[in-house]
């Protein structure tokens, strides 16, 4: 504990303790194995996708630039969350410094919002490819990807940095035990001695405005794609178009579903164990990261061919 002045002399805290399934020690042992395997799978598969796109000149196209951006986001999210969770499980390293906690909060929120926005841009890419194929190369260009990346970085930085600042400015005067495996915004803010109404309101309104608008645009894009596909007359055209977009939609649907389940468990928190939302929170940072490159690698012929060529060269 360290004293500091904030209008008057009071007691502040220099670090937090992450209470990660302490009520169920057996959970820590059993969860550590699948989490470790998922972590290795996510890191390895995303690294393969990134290296393949980087080394294969045939994949230097806007669609694959967006895919590499998604893989990079998954790598950062995994590295930000999972090593600390495993350190708690294996070595009981529950303390996390004040700065590290809010830095983790910012990175998690930032890259989570970036991933949602990247899915939106990828949905637009598929919409143009299916509904306006003749204009695709003139609309989806390298310049388009560059502008999209700048938009993704800037929009989400403004929103997520504010979340971390609002939480960090609060006065933490006594309790320092976070009932979570990670430094989630409200899990940390509720330890404050101050009123956190603004934090709750900003996260709810801002989060659902950004993520909600992304999801609406994503499903609008795929609705238009489905309508266009059903009008195709050429033999095999429907199957090819659905196969091209299927992998995207599967990942987006899973991304949205697990988020919805997480929200519902928070709403019904009196009826479920408090550790259930914590578990879902951890899984939401690892399962999509492990699935994304696998689904794309299995369903995207160019990626598979690129990996095969690299293996033959090796």
From TrEMBL:
* Membrane topology field: Multi-pass membrane protein
Highest rank taxon of the organism? Eukaryota
Give the PROSITE patterns listed for this entry: G_PROTEIN_RECEP_F1_2 (PS50262)
Extract one GO molecular function annotation from the record: olfactory receptor activity
Membrane spanning residue stretches: 33-55, 67-91, 97-123, 144-166, 208-230, 242-264, 276-298
In the record, biological process GO terms are: cellular response to lipid
Name the major location.
Answer: membrane
Record keywords: Glycoprotein included? no
Query: Which key words are in the record?
Result: G-protein coupled receptor, Membrane, Olfaction, Receptor, Sensory transduction, Transducer, Transmembrane, Transmembrane helix
All residue ranges annotated as the G-protein coupled receptors family 1 profile domain in the record:
45-296
Membrane as a keyword of this entry, yes or no, is yes
Protein's cellular compartments: Membrane
GO CC, sorted alphabetically, is: plasma membrane
- Which PANTHER family does the record cross-reference, listed alphabetically? OLFACTORY RECEPTOR 56A3 (PTHR26450:SF40), OLFACTORY RECEPTOR 56B1-RELATED (PTHR26450)
Q: What is this protein called?
A: G-protein coupled receptors family 1 profile domain-containing protein
